[in-house]
Amino acid sequence: MSARRTVLIVSYYFAPSPAVGAKRFSFLAREFERLGYDVHVITHEMREWTYGKADSSLPVAGRIHRCDSIRLPLPGKGFFARAINAVLRKLLAPVGFEYFWARAATRKALEVARDLPPGIVIATSPAHAAILAGGRIADSLGWPLILDYRDPWSAYEWPSWRRGKVTQWFARRLEQSLVRQSDARVLNTPAMRDWFEKFFPHSPGARNFVIPNGFDAAPAASAPDTTGPIEIVHAGEIFAGRTLVPVLRAMQRVAARHPGRELRLTTYGDLPAAELQRIRAASLEKLVQVRPRIPFDQLFAALQRAHLLLAVVSDHMLYSTPYKVYDYMATGRPILGLAPIGAALFNLLADSGAGQCLEPGDETGIETALEKLLCGDASPVRARVDRFRWSNLALQYRMVIETAAGAPAPAPVPDDATQSISDSTAINKSG
What we know:
Strand content: 15-25%
Number of strands: 13
Order of helices and strands: EHEEHHEHEHEHEEHEHEHEHEHEHHH
Strand order of the largest sheet: 3-2-1-4-5-6-7
């Protein structure tokens, strides 16, 4: 590039927000700057974080432009607030409570772009309001638009309890116009691309790209203790449609055959009341300890000390690979995934060599995997994960940016070059 191309990122979540949605572009913005782009980020105003304290482990890169709008849902538990929130929740369901932020984000972006050379707009969803804002910004500026999907909007068969038919109909119409406007789409997993192309068959397939989440390189840690308890760690909360019970049952059977080794599952994040009830009903509570969320640097150290890392996918999110899996990859520890058949997590763990994915009902398979771990027969996990480093993923993204902008795409960088970039930027925190 003879001059620095402007990349204007519209992301409702951004560093130092602890929301998982902040991670992807907090890291990619840093990598885009390293590739020579002039990066500007339009995001929401900093305030008390809903998801906990600010995450200081996230890089803050580019020039950050924050804007605020009506804060919804309205605070308070009184009748008036609850009634208004109930009405707005239904009216705004196709987009979400962030709808009004799209207007503020558009105004801010046009103000910022006034003094910038022409560039490209990347809008990432959720929040879906960021895609609405991205479309308005790109249209006003005459810049190319890239839609980046961390999760689907309407291009998925959501269960009725998650999104009703009326909501889905309006969401599809809104998204359809933005898809037609866009110059490229980036989706988080191959399964998401398949769903997208099913519901938007007229979008040019050559402009639908898959770029997953990633991680930063981290120094290798010493191997876990081979004589003490076998520590299995799950990071994050257990949401609806997910449960730890199958792995706890398998642990119980393995522990019965090996009375000299204690098996323990530690989860960092609250368990919902229904899950606690399931665990107690099965008399498995002694095998699990629930700890509160902790800062990422402390969590990462706990992940590195673990013998096995656990990821669980629900049956209504087959497209998804939990972000924690990429954090897990950075540790070099083996990963056990529990997911319904057909979930994207099966392919990710198999292709990366980072671990094994099993159906929750396959308790024999889970038991076998734990047995191998107990005997010190865990498979090597580092062979194919390096392509998921943020520095390597950003090189893929550069080709998308330049293609959408109409410029000749840069020549692919050889594997040894991407490896050297990754090594030179290694830090002691993962993405």
